[in-house]
Amino acid sequence: MISRRSLTRTNAVVAAVVVLLLVLPAFGSDFFVRFIMTQTLILGLMAATIVFLTAYGGMISLAQLLLAGVAGFMFGNAALSEGARGLNLGLSPWVAVVFALAVTTVVAFLLGALASRTTGIYFLMLTLVYGVIGYTVFAQVVTISGPSGITSIVAPEPFTEPVNLYYAALVLSVLAYIAFRAIGRTNFGLAMQGVRDDPIRMSSLGFNVALHRTLAFTLGGLVAGVAGLLNVWWRKQIDPASINIGPTLAILIIAVIGGISYFEGAWLGALVYVLLNTYTKSIPLIDQIGLTPDRFNTVIGLMVLLIMVLSPEGLAGILERLSRGRGLGKPTQHSVEPPTTSTSPVRTGPGGLQ
Amino acid sequence: MRSRSRKSRWVLPATAVSVIALVAAGCGGSDDESSDSSGGSGGGGGDGAPGATEESGVKLGVLGECEGPFGGFHEDTVAGVALALSNLAGAKVESKTSALDGWTGATVNGTPIELVGIGCGDDTADTISEEIRQLVEQEGANIVIGPLSGDEGIAVAEYAKANPELTVLSGIAGSQEPTLQVQAPNFFRFHGDGAIWNAGMGDILHNEEGWDTVAVIADDYSFGHTSAAGFIADFCGVGGDVTTRVFPPLGTTDYSSYIQQLPNPDEVDGYFWAVGGTGTQAALEAFVNAKGDLTGDQHAGNLFFNPDLAQALGTDIAGAYVGGFAVLPGDVQTPEIQQYLASADKTWNTLASGITGGEPGPPSAAAGFGFMYGYYSAGVALVEALEETGGDPSPDALQPALAELELDLPYGPISLDENRSGIVDVGLSQLVEKDGEIVQEAVAIIPEVDQTFGGTFSTDTPPPSRDFPPCEEADLPWVGNAIPVVDGKPQE
């Protein structure tokens, strides 16, 4: 059980961080705001969809970056009127946004429907297959991309200005965070948690398990699509390598680092990932111990290993334990308890929201 | 206990808030001034590139390649720039065994050239975009040399276009698009592209070797497309016919399914290979397995064909023609080339170059390969342009000077066309057997090739792709102008 005071404290922390992020452009460097934090918020938003599916549905998805990529490719195809590759539909930017999100939602629904009858490792593998197929489709079908992707993508006004894009990523992240938490208290969210914990019982009670999973996957896909749009506006291009297996796993790693059962963890993991990626090579004498820039994957791998040993619930789990005055080696109570009927939407143990 | 527990509850908020605050504060400062200079630029120019005009010196970033198919050439990229600055700007390298440690003391007309960072590319546009943003927006680079690879070149040119205060000199990115399609006014390429490096091959194969039909197999990305496009434009231009085009993805390890798409040896006169990196040998081995032994007189390749292939494939590969690169074939030796190679050996004791498999080897081996030479050319261009401007690195002075440069480089002169892409001499070669060993000998130099191929490629045509250019006859400016090379000596 999570006390009311604890929940209030979590909200206070999140609110304080959001306020800090709102005023960050006033005192943070341009690079930190436009590069580090914008990227963090976008990656965090993508990773939050993994947390959403895992926390409420017990579905660890590796297709979220693909869905973000679908939105990015579709925006590029729709918004550009002339370019080296793609459909060059020449739609107005905001119509292109609607088009991209509509296509992404339909794709997510279809993929979700196909995967809705699988669980656990089979769901994970199936979504991995989605990612591989998606990469191949965009690499091979030159009509919509081809191997060199879509370039010269311009964000709609006013998001051409980097600070505005940062605020867009921040606002959308906050909205997604609130929405994901709120969904846990809705009938749909409660049903999803039931489906996660005991699909057979839920089915016998008359719930359409496959439909619930499909709709959750679709919603996660839509939010991933929003993150994908922010991503192409930030990068100004997208190519199949952007959704290859490496970046796909990076999103999962971000969720794991932060704590795959904590929504806050998605952004926390993204911040750690981006900071490591950016600053590891700047640490004095780091190359003397063999950690040259090409060893970033080793660093991030060690980080994941360390976190998994210290706390399978990621950094957010570690911070929570510290805040409760517990040692790192002891599991939190809620991580070993069987699922209860609590409606608290946020903190979960592995495989179960409590 | 209770009070301690209550106190500890604020560890989480305090930690989260302080982490962000500390990092933000710690990272502030270096580009504070840049917000003023970029804030009013609007549009795509607002990414925070520093105002170079405010800087007194050159803050140079180098985009290297430490991961991916060409990750072994990271050392070569920085070494090229360092060698140019060592030879022409008085730089002293920090290490005699690695160029990655940088240099000190580089100045041109009193303007210091400081290395502010080395980017780590992996052959993808996403990564190189992040790397150049870090170099420019974090490290404050006002001039960038790089990148190495084709798709990266497009991304970097796009970034340059959005940040006019920045000046970019391409390292050795050989796709056509950065200059012909993107057309960033501040992106300069003092080398050829993949198409240029195959100019003249079709002429030789069709008119001298009697090939009428050919199958093309090339990497499925911008450089592979560009390389194949140059051969196709040339071969078809002089009357040949390309019957098949196959494009395996970059990084393929099992080429068998793509080899099956090629016609059999008795169905075409020859094959042209533009498969690079580790794929060259793997693709040719798959060909041997599927279609029978190689015969050199039926194969030709782009710059990735080399004598080392004979170690795995046998000496039957003798006779194969090889496209050009930024450097001339190794048997062409002039005093300028020898002086250039000697300067590399004088600057370093060893370099762990990609050409020596990442192991310490003679620096001249790296300098004699196109990757390092491309970066060297960019370094020379930067120095000579700074000499023209009296040491002024501001975009308004430096960029016009770069555009007008005519470099007299060891492997031949280079000037730029109206799209700021190199007009270069291309050295074609052939694999020949000598004393039981396969060596590469120059056969011809195609002078002053530009990237338009006499109009086949232009700003109005699409970039090279799987089906562009079509196979059509055309007037190529260099047909009949090739300079034959005998025993490494051009026959003027």
Task: Explain what this protein looks like in three dimensions.
The complex is a heterodimer of chains A (354) and B (492). Chain A is mostly helical and 354 residues long. Chain A has helices at 4-27, 30-57, 64-79, 93-115, 120-140, 162-183, 187-197, 199-204, 209-235, 245-258, 263-279, 296-310, 314-323, 333-336, and strands at residues 348-349, 352-353. In chain A, strand 1 (348-349) and strand 2 (352-353) form a beta hairpin. Chain A is globular. With 492 residues, chain B is an alpha/beta fold. Chain B folds into two domains: 50-192 and 334-420, Rossmann fold (3-Layer(aba) Sandwich); 196-325 and 426-490, Rossmann fold. Chain B is 35% helix and 20% strand. The interface between A and B is large, with 55 and 67 residues.
Short description:
The complex is a heterodimer of chains A (354) and B (492). Chain A has a single domain, classed as ABC transporter involved in vitamin B12 uptake, BtuC (Orthogonal Bundle), CATH 1.10.3470.
